[in-house]
């Protein structure tokens, strides 16, 4: 009923306007109006009826203010090139909206280019006129973040907004919190380890978690940027420790005799190689070191986790002369080493 009335109204208005337009109606050319009459002239059953009918309609579209964004190009409408936008994006949208990235230290380049990369100008099935919801929207342009084999919890949950602003952010990489804080928001336990640690690991304390962990997806568990053994023992291969050897020299684990490659040696006999570099059951770094920080010197654990249910006690006592140390551990008798003078252990 209403649509019949609308059609009648449309025809009446059209007839009334006829004298103002020289164009021939039978040649399918319309004069376009503004305001409510406009909405009716554009969104009739034959023309653009679908615009404004989705679950969420943009206010100027619902109000029928099509000409806030569209203008006639001076050619008969409908027809190729008969309509233009009143302005290019993002200026078109900034007629009525403040730039959503205004004042942000790290604006999203996508926003500076165009709004319709993410928003439908007319309507959407989703709130805020977005083209898609959640991570789907972002992955249209950033598929590469999903390249790794294992995906991090919040990324699997398709929620980029847990870490990034959508239009930009105050922190590097558009993050909602600066640096490590973004990780501590969900991994408070690691913050505690770092704050209570007696020995600190430089890249953890002064660097960024993503020096070692991929925030989105990775090929190595737990979301590591490079290979690192998962178990407690492994046959030695330099390639298995690429994560650590990006920054530390592998010679500490490949030289058997050395007076400088490592401080963990008994005179020149390399105790790092002795423990780690084995065909069978070589110990991995975490058999002794806690990579985020520990309560003893040299990132040594005082209780080594991950060995089944047992936390192996490890006490590392530096010798009085400062040239070596004694290790009191759960897995062998106390043993001492000295870098100046070879010590014979029973
Ligand atoms: C807020 C600005 C804005 C308003 C208001 C607006 N449009 Fe649009 N419209 C656009 C933009 C921007 C495009 C170009 C979209 C693209 O290139 O993908 C467009 C494209 C179109 C198109 C061609 C592509 C399509 O989606 O079919 C039609 C037809 C159209 N608009 C009709 C209308 C009608 C009818 C109204 C009023 C009911 C209206 N528009 C109101 C911004 C607007
Ligand atoms: C003629 C003025 C006008 C223009 C031009 C305009 N908008 Fe809007 N827009 C509005 C009004 C009015 C609202 C509703 C105000 C509000 O809810 O705060 C709105 C709301 C929105 C919303 C929020 C919708 C919601 O559900 O909360 C988005 C997103 C949006 N506009 C995007 C755009 C984009 C993208 C463009 C350019 C293609 C644009 N606007 C151009 C007037 C305009
Ligand atoms: C990279 C995608 C993207 C681009 C580009 C983009 N937006 Fe948005 N915008 C979003 C998302 C996603 C939301 C919903 C945010 C939410 O739900 O928290 C949103 C929300 C909005 C809102 C609603 C208010 C708010 O902040 O929640 C407005 C208004 C808006 N955008 C305007 C614009 C304008 C104007 C432009 C262009 C200058 C633009 N957007 C460009 C993704 C984008
Ligand atoms: C229409 C394409 C497009 C969409 C959709 C899009 N982006 Fe972007 N994004 C870009 C472009 C272009 C850049 C700048 C070039 C680059 O770094 O790849 C960028 C850069 C970024 C950056 C890096 C910023 C920096 O300072 O290094 C982040 C983070 C980002 N986008 C997150 C998102 C998120 C989150 C979403 C979903 C809400 C999203 N993007 C959706 C195009 C897009
Ligand atoms: C757990 C927090 C977190 C989540 C969730 C997250 N990111 Fe990021 N993202 C980061 C961090 C941290 C960086 C900075 C990494 C760097 O500088 O190496 C970053 C950087 C980026 C960059 C720019 C550099 C690059 O790696 O290409 C883009 C683009 C990006 N993120 C997109 C996304 C998209 C898309 C999603 C959702 C699918 C997402 N992010 C979810 C934390 C996150
Ligand atoms: C919004 C919450 C959230 C934020 C922010 C977050 N994470 Fe996570 N993270 C999770 C959840 C949930 C899991 C567990 C599910 C899984 O395995 O992905 C997880 C797992 C991890 C794991 C593997 C844990 C294990 O035991 O295997 C690492 C490593 C990790 N996150 C590092 C980071 C880093 C680095 C950052 C900062 C860039 C960060 N996370 C930010 C929620 C978060
Ligand atoms: C120097 C490299 C490096 C840096 C930097 C680093 N991690 Fe790790 N992280 C690792 C390694 C290696 C593991 C695997 C377990 C192990 O060896 O202890 C790990 C494991 C994890 C785990 C899962 C297991 C656990 O211990 O709970 C989480 C969560 C985690 N890291 C979060 C973080 C956060 C948050 C930061 C930043 C404050 C960070 N990491 C910085 C190397 C690093
Ligand atoms: C991003 C670079 C980087 C990565 C990756 C890295 N480290 Fe370090 N590490 C350092 C720096 C810098 C220091 C401090 C200077 C030094 O002793 O060489 C350090 C120191 C150490 C120390 C001695 C701490 C002390 O108190 O003197 C140990 C043990 C250590 N790292 C173990 C590891 C292990 C195990 C890995 C692999 C899981 C690893 N590191 C990965 C940069 C890195
Ligand atoms: C059996 C225990 C043990 C294992 C396994 C072990 N370390 Fe160590 N590491 C030590 C001890 C003890 C020290 C302290 C030596 C000193 O200063 O007296 C040390 C010191 C270090 C240092 C400081 C520089 C140096 O060499 O003196 C780095 C870096 C280091 N370890 C990295 C690693 C990496 C990487 C792995 C795995 C590939 C690893 N460690 C495996 C016990 C171990």
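Sequence proposed for the structure above (346 residues):
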């Amino acid at each position: 009923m209403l649509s019949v009335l609308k059609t009648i109204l449309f025809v009446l208005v059209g007839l009334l306007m006829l004298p103002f337009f020289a164009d021939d109606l039978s040649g399918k050319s319309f004069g376009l109006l503004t305001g409510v009459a406009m909405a009716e002239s554009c969104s009739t059953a034959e023309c653009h009826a679908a615009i404004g009918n989705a679950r969420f309609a943009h206010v100027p579209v619902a109000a029928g203010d099509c000409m806030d964004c569209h203008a006639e190009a001076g050619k008969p409408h409908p027809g190729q090139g008969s309509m233009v936008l009143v302005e290019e994006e993002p200026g078109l949208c900034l007629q009525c909206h403040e730039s959503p990235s205004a004042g942000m230290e790290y604006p999203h380049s996508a926003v500076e280019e165009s709004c319709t990369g993410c928003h439908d100008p007319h309507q959407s099935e989703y709130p805020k006129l977005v083209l898609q919801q959640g991570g789907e929207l972002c992955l249209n342009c950033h598929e590469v973040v999903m390249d790794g084999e294992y995906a991090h919890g919040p990324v699997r949950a398709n929620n980029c907004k847990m870490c990034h602003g959508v239009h930009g952010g105050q922190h590097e990489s558009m993050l909602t919190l600066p640096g490590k804080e973004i990780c501590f928001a969900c991994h408070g336990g690691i913050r505690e380890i770092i704050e209570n640690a007696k020995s600190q690991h430089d890249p953890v304390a002064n660097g960024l978690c993503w020096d070692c962990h991929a925030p989105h997806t990775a090929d190595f568990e737990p979301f590591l940027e490079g290979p690192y053994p998962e178990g407690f023992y492994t046959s030695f291969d330099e390639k298995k420790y690429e994560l650590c050897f990006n920054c530390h020299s592998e010679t500490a684990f490949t030289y058997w005799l050395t007076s400088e490659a490592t401080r963990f040696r008994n005179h020149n006999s390399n105790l790092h190689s002795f423990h780690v570099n084995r065909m069978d059951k070589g110990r991995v770094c975490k058999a002794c070191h806690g990579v985020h920080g520990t309560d003893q010197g040299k990132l040594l654990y005082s209780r080594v986790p991950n060995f089944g249910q047992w936390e192996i006690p490890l006490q590392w006592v530096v010798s009085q002369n400062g040239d070596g140390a004694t290790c009191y551990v759960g897995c062998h008798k106390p043993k001492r080493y000295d870098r100046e003078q070879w010590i014979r252990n029973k």
